UniProtKB/TrEMBL annotation:
Radical SAM core domain location: 207-437
Catalytic activity: N(6)-dimethylallyladenosine(37) in tRNA + (sulfur carrier)-SH + AH2 + 2 S-adenosyl-L-methionine = 2-methylsulfanyl-N(6)-dimethylallyladenosine(37) in tRNA + (sulfur carrier)-H + 5'-deoxyadenosine + L-methionine + A + S-adenosyl-L-homocysteine + 2 H(+)
Major subcellular site: cytoplasm
GO cellular component: cytosol
Binding-site residues for [4Fe-4S] cluster 1, renumbered to this chain: 75, 111, 145
Stated name of the protein: tRNA-2-methylthio-N(6)-dimethylallyladenosine synthase
HAMAP family listed in its UniProt record: tRNA_metthiotr_MiaB (MF_01864)
Keyword set, alphabetical order: 4Fe-4S, Cytoplasm, Iron, Iron-sulfur, Metal-binding, S-adenosyl-L-methionine, Transferase, tRNA processing
Record organism: Savagea serpentis
Subunit architecture: Monomer.
Family of the protein in this entry: Belongs to the methylthiotransferase family. MiaB subfamily.
Length: 511
């Protein structure tokens, strides 16, 4: 597609004039559709690695006098993508506004994991319709994982004509071009690549805070769990070069960040695609633990790729926290097989035993799906008993949500919604009781808390998280925000701890 086609102009420079939207012609000009079939391909094509990202000079002043607003849904990866897009906007001269009614560009950075996430986005688009009517020059865009789904793009095309642009997870670096096209074109600009994915370095970032930072170490997923749309929306597994990651973490440490979370859709598969290196997540963590930064975490891991080298390195402790989020999804081997998780209940328990032996004080949390197609009462009970046997501190629990295009969406489901909700209630009751017991153990103890800011409920109270990711609320001078402090726990609740401020933790104790 050449630039003239992209701008919806004829070769002689004149605009294409139509009385009505002729979508067959429109697709040929500015529409690059997503394809789940193409997105599923995992070929041997080499991942392209670009470290020369620059803002085109012709776009440099595009945002002068204009404001942007990004609304983010979903996981930390989406949050990080928002940081990158915000960085690009600001490099173009835009300024951020938290008030979308004052924005010149509004982006919805979307999540496709569950159906209710999509419902929220379509509901928000409905609310934005009146704002667009009041301000016709406002640009509205949909990006993120939902944009990679054919059904979503078709729905927006047919029912949301006030949307100006749609772009996918592989197209973020193309934001300046997409904005330019949206300003110039009279039609909706749709650019969604269903390729396997490249790696773009040197993208600008406007970090959401100055205390914690997210660092992408890899992109995509090749596991193809039958319920999950992520391998289609995020492309194949591809790892960043270790030297680029280490340099980014060093820079964040120099800027005073206290905690780094390494991100990936399947983060512990890191390095397995690097053909010229024998270098895994364990090796990366071993190198990063030598950097002078208090805390390093990673998410989200897949049990199948949690290897002995990673366990060995995590056991060294230091700035590598002893909290591990390990999604199990089900306690039934039969359901796990239908989910294509590639491990059994017994193998998961063996992994947990290895981790606990190497890291005796480890805290484990997990994700669980209830009501997967044809899940029996007995299979659900296996999930309940596994949760207790492992001794998870807590879990994020969900009712199965079918995603169009995934194998599970085609499975016959004989579990009624009434039964699914009852199972979720039973599981949540167990999770709540377990979480309360885990929290109760902290009463009277002194914990180290990274202070993130004021409590959402009371500006006179500060809050932050421990190494084990426990939320702590306490009263202290505002000057300690951004520092690691000691707090004595006075009251344990189901999901948080209250405590009394003791004082700052000496720097040498945090690394």
């Amino acid at each position: 597609m050449n630039e003239e086609q992209r701008l919806n102009k004829t070769p002689d420079g004149s605009e294409v004039k139509t009385e009505e939207k002729d979508y067959s012609q429109y697709f040929n000009r500015v529409y690059q559709p997503p394809s789940l079939k193409d997105a599923k391909r995992r070929g041997k094509e080499e991942v392209e690695y670009h470290d020369d990202f620059q803002i085109d000079e012709r776009f440099r002043e595009m945002g002068n006098g204009r404001k942007f607003h990004i609304q983010t849904y979903g996981c930390q990866m989406n949050e990080h993508d928002t940081e990158v897009m915000a960085g690009i906007f600001m490099a173009l001269g835009y300024t951020f506004t938290p008030d979308r009614t004052k924005a010149d560009v509004i982006l919805l950075n979307t999540c496709a994991i569950r159906e209710n996430a999509e419902d929220k986005v379509f509901g928000e688009l409905g609310h934005l319709k009146s704002l667009k009517r009041e301000r016709p020059d406002l640009l509205i865009g949909v990006c993120g994982c939902m944009s990679q789904e054919e059904s979503v793009v078709n729905e927006i095309l047919s029912r949301q004509p006030h949307v100006d642009m749609i772009f996918g997870t592989h197209n973020i670096h193309r934001l300046p071009n997409i904005l330019h096209e949206a300003y110039m074109s009279k039609e909706m600009v749709v650019e969604v690549w269903s390729k396997e994915g490249d790696i773009i370095e040197n993208l600008p970032k406007q970090r959401l805070g100055h205390i914690k930072a997210w660092v992408n170490i890899m992109y995509g997923c090749d596991k193809f769990c039958t319920y999950c749309i992520v391998p289609y929306t995020r492309g194949k597994e591809r790892s960043r070069r270790p030297e680029d990651i280490i340099q980014e973490v060093r820079e964040l440490a120099a800027q005073g960040y206290k905690e780094i979370t390494l991100l990936g859709q399947n983060v512990n598969a890191y390095g397995k695609d690097l053909e010229d290196l024998d270098y895994t997540l364990g090796d990366l963590m071993d190198d990063l633990r030598k950097i002078d930064i208090p805390r390093i975490r990673f998410t989200t891991s897949h049990p199948r790729d949690f290897d002995d080298r990673l366990i060995e390195v995590l056991a060294k402790g230091g700035n590598l926290v002893d909290h591990i989020h390990l999604p199990v999804q089900s306690g039934s081997s039969a359901i796990l097989k239908m989910m294509s998780r590639k491990y059994t209940r017994e193998q998961f328990l063996e992994l947990v035993a290895k981790i606990k032996k190497a890291i005796p004080n480890v805290t484990l949390t997990t994700d669980i799906i209830v009501g997967f197609p044809n899940e029996t009462d007995e299979q659900f009970e296996e999930t309940m008993t596994l949760f207790e046997e492992v001794g998870f501190d807590t879990a994020y629990t969900y009712i199965y949500s079918p995603r169009e295009g995934t194998p599970a969406a085609k499975m016959q489901d004989n579990v009624s919604m009434e039964v699914k909700k009852e199972r979720l209630q039973r599981l949540n009751k167990l999770v709540n009781e377990t979480s309360a017991k885990a929290m109760a153990q902290y009463e009277g103890q002194t914990v180290k808390v990274l202070v993130e800011g004021e409590s959402k409920k009371d500006p006179e109270v500060l809050s932050g998280y421990t190494e084990k990711n426990k939320l702590v609320n306490f009263r202290a001078p505002k000057e300690v925000i951004g520092e690691i402090v000691e707090v004595k726990v006075t009251d344990a609740k189901t999901w948080s701890l209250d405590g009394e401020y003791i004082g700052l933790v000496k720097q040498k104790e945090t690394v």
